[in-house]
Amino acid sequence: MTSTKSSLSVGALSADPGSKVRGTVPADLGTLTVDIPLTLVNGAHPGPRVLVTAGVHGGEFTGIDAATRLAALLEPGEVHGQVVVCPVANPSAVYQGRLGVSPVDGVNINRVFPGDPDGGPTERLAAWLFAHLVEGADAYVDLHSGGIDEVLKDFVGYRLTGDSELDGKTADMAGALGIEDVIFGMNADGGNSHAAAARQGIPAILVETGQLGERDPEAARRLVGGLYGVLSRLEVLDTRPQDPASPVREWVWAAGVTAENSGLWYPEFTAGDDVTAGQVIGHVIDPADGQEHKVHTLATGRIFYGMRGLTVAPGAELAAIAAPAPRDSGDH
Fold first, then answer.
1. 46-58 pLDDT, tens per residue?
2. Residues 144, 52 contacting (CB under 8 angstroms)
């Protein structure tokens, strides 16, 4: 889609060409209504529509901070096309919770996209976000961070679709952010927002910056610089990043390690550590009898994020491992 002289509207919120409007739009989730904060930047020049979301999960502050800063900085006179910024996509999780699941129904919204307008509250929210924001976009950037119980090494993620043109556009966006590590999934399956967008033919990237629920203004400022790089690459802005982009290292997801027992988790790694298949990366200890359960990696590669909370239940994700991408995988 290329905007020309059309207004930019989401619900009752509307921005004429050459203007910026900030406000909230109500989303009816069946058992409750939530107000979704939005900034609509309708550029003075024609160009694509770009969506930036943050606050899909609670306790992930760097992306929310960066999205809010970006919304304040963008000026319609400098924009070619339209930019929609949603700094808090999941208000219940952000304001009432601090973990990946919503306190409303215990559902992780980033597992149920594109959602279900007749489902539970979180499924309805995913459907609302997809219908009102994602489906109208020509490119999509979803900002995440390591949560309050999670260490994380910054990375950009996206999904391969088999469409060489789409995958090439997405890879170009990922490389423009200035983050060294780019991890891609081998298909666009699943309920992540960027995967669901990719299935609709929209170039979409996941950006993970920050960890442990930290407030880090410098990290947020760096992320804003990276977003300017993406907007420049998409020709939405004429500006260019001040520093040259970092060389990109490509990875592919290799394995996730989950807890098999309830208990107390004692990790023996940090994000960015290299591990080999079968290596012990921590222990889960049963506080009732002191029994120790060793946790092993399932693959050789690098740990990009992992659990730092003390208490875990069966199925809790303890670590996520990526392996260097085969050389020919970059030809997509």
1. 999 999 999 999 9
2. no
